Amino acid sequence: MDMLAFAIPAWYLLAGTMKGRSLWALQAIVPAVVLSAWLADGWLVTLMVALVATLGLFVSRFSEQYLAGEAKQADFFRWLHWTIAMVMLVVVSDHLLVLWFAWVGISLSLHQLLLFYPDRPRAQLAAHKKFVFARFADISLLGAIGLLFWQYQSFSISELALLVSSSDATALTHSAATLMVLAALLKCAQMPFHGWLIQVVEAPTPVSALLHAGVVNLGGYLLLRNAELLQASWIATTVLALVAGLTLVLAAVIATTRISVKVGLAWSTVSQMALMLLQIAAGLYALAALHLLAHSCYKAYSFLNAGSQVKTAVAKQMSASKASMATTVLGFSAAFSVYLIGTVVLKGSVSITEVAFFALYSAGFAALVQHGQLAKGLVAALALAGVHTALKYSLGWQALPEALALELLFAAIVLVLIAFAWTVQFSEHKPVGKRLHQALFAGLYLDEWATRITLALWPAKLTQAKPVNKVATAEVQS
Amino acid sequence: MNVAVKAPVSTLIQQAAGRIAPNWPLDKLIAVNPYWQMRQLSMHEVAVNLSWLGGVHVYGDVSHYQHVSDDDLAQALSALGHELTVAQFKQQPLKQPQPWQNVAQLADLERDSEREISWNDEVVHQISQFAGDYFASQPQTGAGCDDFYAAWLDTICHDHGLEILMKSKGLVEQFKALPSDATTLVEQALTMLGVTDEAQVDYLHALLLSINGWASYSAYVGWQAMLAGKQNNVVEQLLAVRLAWELVLWQQLSSSELQINWKRQLAHSNQLKGEHQAYVDGLQVWHLANEMQIQQGLHQQLRTPLPAKDNAALSLQAVFCIDTRSEVMRRALEAQSPSIQTKGFAGFFGLPIAYAVGSYQRPQLPGLLAPQLEVREASSGKLATAQYSAQWQKFAKSSAGGFSLVESTGLLYLGGLVKNTLGLGKAKVTEFGPLTLSKQGKALPLSEQADMAAGILGSMGFTDEFADTVLLLGHGSQCQNNPHEAGLDCGACGGQTGEVNVRLLCQLLNDAAVREALIERGIHIPDATTFVPGLHNTTTDEVIVLSGQVPEQIEQWLAGATEQASSERAKLSASPDAKQKARDWSQTRPEWGLANNACFIVADRKRSQHLNLGGRSFLHDYNWANDKDFALLTTILTAPMLVTNWINMQYNASVTDPLKYGAGNKTLHNVVGGNIGVFEGNGGDLRIGLPLQSVHDGQKYMHTPTRLNVYVDAPKHAIRNIIDAHDNVRWLIDNDWLYLYQLRDDGICRYHQGYWHPVQ
Fold this sequence. Notes:
The structure holds two protein chains of two kinds.
Chain A: H1 7-19, H2 22-39, H3 43-66, H4 73-92, H5 96-114, H6 121-152, H7 157-165, H8 171-187, H9 195-199, H10 205-215, H11 218-225, H12 227-232, H13 234-255, H14 261-281, H15 285-304, H16 309-318, H17 325-347, H18 352-370, H19 374-395, H20 404-426, H21 431-441, H22 446-457, H23 470-476
Helix pairs in contact in A: 1-2, 1-4, 2-3, 3-4, 3-10, 3-15, 4-5, 5-6, 6-8, 8-11, 8-13, 10-15, 13-14, 13-20, 14-15, 15-19, 17-18, 17-19, 18-19, 18-20
Chain B: H1 9-17, H2 43-54, H3 70-79, H4 86-91, H5 103-108, H6 119-136, H7 148-156, H8 161-166, H9 171-176, H10 182-192, H11 200-210, H12 212-227, H13 234-253, H14 256-267, H15 269-303, E1 316-321, H16 324-334, E2 340-345, E3 353-357, E4 360-363, E5 373-377, H17 384-397, H18 401-409, H19 413-421, E6 435-439, E7 442-443, H20 446-460, E8 469-476, H21 485-488, H22 499-510, H23 512-520, E9 530-537, E10 543-545, H24 552-570, H25 578-583, E11 599-602, E12 617-620, H26 631-638, H27 640-656, H28 658-661, E13 662-664, E14 669-672, E15 677-680, E16 690-691, H29 692-695, E17 709-712, H30 716-725, H31 727-734, E18 739-744, E19 747-752, E20 755-758
């Protein structure tokens, strides 16, 4: 890609360093989007630039008042815009080494944001875990880039795409693809590397909004950009599908057991990222891209608006309603039929994977119908099918011709999720449900291992509860 | 204390649990004096105990008193009987000694903090997470909750994550060996730990302070049970849980260093307390000097001669809540015309009601009282939108629903971002129809309605001289995205706006049948008089008329008052546009609430009407000449005065000890269990009290900690009799939780330790 592409992140750097206010972010959006549309060879880049620029603007604008009176507000804006600039650089860069440096840059500037309140021990622990995982991701990605260069003598993503798809996969290709998948899994906080994403709600709300909407999904974006490489390696695809699939099932049900709003949102991000990665593994790129964009908007809004939780909770109490099995089944069937018929009519065929995903979405709509929102559920189902189809045609991507075994794997993962979710929901008051709840509430102890191993390998400088002075002990409890 | 008779362990537990004040959930958030349950002790004694047991500052540390002059200090030193000169006093070092350490804290001394998680941190975190999960699944009525300890034990015996995280094999086995009964556990633990009899209650108190947030929420659950006439011991069970951790750590670690440290601490506990006594004695001087400075200003103001009374005909009467924010607005409204009279009365207007929608019910009266009557909207439909959005949220939270939600509607949230960023949020008050009133499911008979109306008018001292328009004003805050919004609403209405109360009372007083029945009860309301319900928006200082219309002249006066009051309030903020703040979802300081409250004046308005009290005073109208047996005064001193003490102490404590009694930084707030409370960040203890941003503008505290100065215009013997007859009033005054003065034409007298002292 042209050197001009770097003008976009450069603009943000300037904005962040010089002014550090949202007005600059606002002015940066239009040139960024125009420039990227002009330069990039695909809609994905432009959409991502638009997304990151827009969310960056909202987060920046929100933080002006929200963090007013904080001694480090100016630092916050500096690091916020540095982070956005580095994200932009990852998004627009066609050169893998540039992308790699930008990726490291995101991690380093984000680290400053995560430690906005440096005296909080749990913030330190979370940032530390994130730091360690990020270095593993960096090494994996660098390894992948090295192997690719060794085999194809190119650092260009677009060139590599052509080279990879025109030659047979070798052991090197498989290794490179698998390393890249590993980097993506680490960056997308897939289990068991998810703990830091949950615990970084120790930083101010806008940091969470930025992280969940604009940073954590870059793993998926990386794989979308390098889709040809992924397609060339069934090993990498299988690793991706297994880890993401398992995470999808577990994180989705664990998320429902969380007691605090931000932690619940963070767990939901883990499972949403898993869904996106699973879609990528299944070759459903349009769906994955749609998911990435939609999830970002949803999560940015949900975090920034998390203070409204109390009002929502009261409204919930005011509107107790009973669920019945019959309406649930009805809702499920209705939504499922709409998906299935819609796809067959528009596309002419439907794969097993698609059927499984439709079942997943339909299960969600069934929940909506349970609460007496049949019409809304159907409208939403139609809207989803429509947007998906539109994206699919405009992006012009083909699903890869999967092996039947892989197809069945996807289908199985999704069906297990549905079954598991319903078991949890309906066994709530039975002993087995109680044990299940306890295990899920404990997050299946995965993060406990991650924390312990991290601290053993790479000790952290934590302000611990050395009960020598009052401030230290009291803050541990906060 | 008689040491010969050993108290049974259940009594010890009750004593310790009985020291924790309740903390209301966020949707019903009202101010609470966090020391309320220790009011039988002097504030100074409590300050020493809390500093010793929990490192708590009841008085602020020295940094809070930089405005205090040497003269003030000299006065305070002499008032407290210190022999020191100011220079000598200032030379003494004043640093808080290390507080009492629980076993979990002592265990941390031996932990490698770079490679291992702190025990104390993890104990708090584990209990806190469990409590959140437990209480989120319990009804918030105070019923149930009797299996807290058992449920915790069941959970922790199946939690294998702790062993992994804490690198402590066999931990779960220790939990499995614990007794299944909470009282037995406490007995066993106190014996094993070798806690001496006289230290036991204090140690248990220290344990509760280490999870003070959840202890306070548990106390709320117990409080609700008490109001409903039931029993509940969830604080005691929480205490057993905390103590179980101590016992388990003690046995699991079985380290000699830990045992030596623990025994040393037990042996030297009186010495440690003595060090805290000396520290707190020093702070007391600073705090008192600061209060004396405030009092001098107040006394001087209250002694200014009253201006001659202007006998203009009344064209508008407006009754406000006693809230300090009303003082600014009343002054502004009175300035519009001499024909305007304002009154101050508790904002729930004495209505013992709960407001109900479907199966949801919320009290609309002070937290000290239980509701007797239920109010509902006569026509429903108001809540359709709220219900839809709630169901959508519920759906989004289901495990499968989240995925389809994001896929199908995620992009639409871009619209939400735009809408909220531009501040297009809806105004708070929208629709008003008639209300229905019932008692235990049956409509309230007319005679009881009239009795209630007559009682309320009587206690307002408002039985004649009615103007054509009488505005009854509730108040409420307007802000977005604020978990602590209820804390800015009317505390007398249970942390709601006063909307329901004023609508109901106006409905009653405008009812022809009720008016007729009132005549029999000696109150004649002229036909020309209309009662109009209104809401004082304390963020923007607008007054919204909730039903009916007021004459144009009155509308103009209200607009004029809004302008004056909001420009006065704007001086306290960096961003002066109140209307913008009320709509801004990123605003963490929508208004200053009751910050800087300092006094409570119980007197006729003529005593304060000519004064600018700067929004620092609660004002209750009272005329003793019309109060035959001082029944009204009794009510005021036993109810509204308690409420003002709760508010005052909440603000004081949130400033002097923001870690234990303040909710922390709003930018980190993380709502727990929908409405139970907030965590600051990922977890830790539940945070109670006021957020940092509610009392701090980024540069300085907006509330100066001071005990409330209560001024009463009534004969000395009447005040004295009420004090002697009511424990709560006596404790508050004799134990120095507030200052009580008599305010008369001939001067101000302070009641202190049984005697009246003229104030110079």
